[in-house]
Design a protein that fits this description.
With 58 residues, the protein is mainly alpha-helical. It has one domain (2-57). The protein contains two helices and two strands, in the order αββα. The chain has a two-stranded antiparallel sheet with strand order 1-2. Strand 1 (20-21) and strand 2 (26-27) form a beta hairpin. Helix 1 (2-18) runs antiparallel to helix 2. The radius of gyration is 15 Å and the shape is rod-shaped. The two termini are 20 Å apart. 12% of the residues are buried. Keywords: Membrane, Transmembrane, Transmembrane helix. This is DUF3188 domain-containing protein. It comes from Heyndrickxia camelliae. The chain crosses the membrane at residues 32-48.
Length: 58
């Protein structure tokens, strides 16, 4: 699950970079919201797996 979360977060970061247009200084809102959603879901998956690992370790 950690790999899936990291993958989603990295795809989200790439979309975040692509969502900006350097020439006009405007953002593509659909790409931006999709990127933020993927980053949040990826972070949630990673943190959930870390908590699960910590409980199992103790």
């Amino acid at each position: 699950m950690v790999k899936n979360g990291l993958f989603l977060a990295s795809i989200g970061c790439l979309l975040l970079l692509i969502s900006a247009n350097a020439r006009t200084g405007k953002y593509d809102i659909l790409n931006l919201t999709t990127a933020l959603f993927l980053i949040m879901v990826g972070t949630f998956l990673v943190l959930r797996e870390k908590r699960k690992y910590k409980k199992k370790k103790d």
